[in-house]
Amino acid sequence: MIRISSQICGLERTLLSDICDSSAAVAYGSLQKAIADRIDDSADSPLAFVARSGLQTKLQAVTDTLYEVDAASLIAAESQITLDLIRSQIGFMRSALLAEQNADPQAEIDAALAEVDRLARSEVNNRTFLDGTRDFQVAGQIAAQVREVSVESLGAPTSLAADQPARLFYAGVDRRISTDAVITLSGDFGSAMLDLTQGQSLFDAAAEINSVMATTGVQATTSGNQLTLESVLQGNQASIAVTVDFGMFAVSGGNGHGVARGTDGLVSQQPSIAGAVLKTATPASLTYSGTDAQITAQASLVIAGPVGSVSVSVAGGEQLTDIAYQLNAYSHETGVLAKATGNDLRLTTVSYGGKATLDIVVDQGTFNVSGGNGAGTSHGTDAIAEINGRLISDNHAANPFSVDGNRFSIDDDGNRFTIEFAANFVGPFQTITLSDAQTLKFQLSTAAGDVTTLGLPSVTPQRLGGPSGMLADLQTGGPLAISQDDEWQALRVIDEALAQLTRIESRIDAFADGAVATSAAFLSGLKKSIEESIDHLEKINEAEATLLQEQNRQLSDKVLASLADLSEQRSRIMQFIDRLPGLD
User: Fold this and answer.
1) pLDDT digits (tens, 9 = 90+) for 235-266
2) Which of 2, 50, 272, 437 has the largest CB neighbor count within 10 A?
3) Contact, 306 vs 351, CB < 8 A?
4) How much is the pTM?
C-alpha cells in the first residue's frame, strides 16, 4: 500500500538538492566573473592551485631581483654622470694651460681640482661611491716596488706558487757528453736503459731521452752545457731517478744522489699577489752626442713618440740644455722627454714597454743619434715577472696573462687584476693581499649565492694621474704647481689622469651595459612570461563562464518547475481522496 503524506518525499529532496547546487553554481559563476579568478582555493583545481603557487613564488623572487638590478643601474648611472663631470673639469684644466691669453692658470687649476674632489666625495643616498671606500682593498703594497694595483673581480683562492716537476741536471763539456755511460732512467711511468757515448751532443742525448718519455715520464731539454731532466708530472708525487750502470754520468739537484721529487704549489685562501720582477721594462731611447754641450750642425727633424710627432729645427752652437727644454715643452704631444748631460742629449719615451716607440727622421742637415736599431728608431721592452707561480714575459692575445711595459694583467680563476711595478724595480716584492669586503655587491640573478661585485676606484685628485705625477701635485704649493717653465709637466699629468679615467669608465660601462643590462632584459622578459602563465591559470573564459552560468540558471528553473508540478499533483490527489465515499 502506498503511503500518501503531506511531508516531503525522496524525489522532492533530490530536486531541492539539485536546485541548491545549481543556484550555488549560478552565484559562484557571478563571483568568478566579478573577480576574474577561477582558483580561489585548492578545492577549485588542486593541480592549478599548486602550479599558481609555484609561479607566484618565482614571480616574487624575480621582482625582488629586479629591485636589485634597478639599484645597481642607478648607482652605475650616477657614477657615469659623475665621471663625465670630472672629465669636464680635467678638460677645463687642460684648456686653461693651453690658452694663450691665460698668463696665470693656477687659479683655474685650483678651482677645477676642488670641484673634482667635491664630485668624487659626493653622496648618493648618504653614501659615497667614488672616493675609494667602495673599491677592492689592497694591503701590503710598497710604493718603491708597486706603483698601482687595480682589481676587477676576486674569485677562487690564489695559487701563489705553481706545482713544480722533479728536476736533475747534467753538466756537459762543449755541449757534449763527457764520458761513456749506461744509465737507467726512472720516472713516474716506468724505467728505460740508455746508452750515452762520449762526444755525443747534448741535443742528441736529449732526443734519445725524449724518445722513451712515454715509457719513463721524463723529458729532457738543453741550454748551453746543461742537460735538464724533468718529470712530466708536477707536484710532490712526481719523481725521477738516474742510476749509473756503467761509466760516469754525474747529475746534480734533488737529494744529491741522483733522485729528485717535485714540489707542491702554495695556495692562499685569501686572494693575494706574490712573486718577483725578473726584468724591468725599459723605455725607447736614443742619444745625440754634441760638442762642448752644444749642437754641432744645423738640422730639421721630426721626432715621433708613442703619443704623436713634432717638427723641430736646431742650429749649430745651440746649447743642449736649451734644446732639451724645447723638446720637453712638446712632451705632452709626443710622449718623449729630453735630458742634457754633458755632451749628450738623451731622448726617452715617457711610457715603457714594447709599445713605446721613438723615431727621429732628419729632413735636412745632420742630427746623428745612437741606440735603438742604429737608424734612428728605438723600441722599449716589456718587463718579465713571476706572479703567483706563473712566468709572464710577453703579450699573447690568447693568453689571459699579459704584460704592457711594467703593467701585468692577470685573469686567473675569477681573480682579475692588473699590477704595475715601479720603474726600474727588480726583485721579489712583498706579498699583497686583496679583499672585496667594502665593494658593492648585487644579486643580479635569482640563483642563490650568485652575487655580482662592483669595485669603484677612487677618482680624487690624489689618485688620478700616472708616472708623471698625480692631479693633486698641480695645486698651489704642490710639487708640480704651475709656472711658466713647466706647464708641459702639468699637461702630461692631466693626459695620464684622463687615460686612467677612461679605464675606470670602461669598467663601470662594462658593468652597466653588460651585467646590469643583460640581467634587466632577461628578468623583465621572465617576469612577463610568469605573469602571463599566472593569468592563464587565473583568468576565466568570459563566454564560457556566461554559458555555464546560463545553463545552471536554466537547470534551476527546470527544477523549480518540477517541484511545482509535484505540488500540484499532491493537491489534486488530496482533492480526489476527499471526494471518495465513505471517507468522511
Assistant:
1) 888 999 999 999 999 999 988 899 999 988 77
2) 272
3) yes
4) 0.68
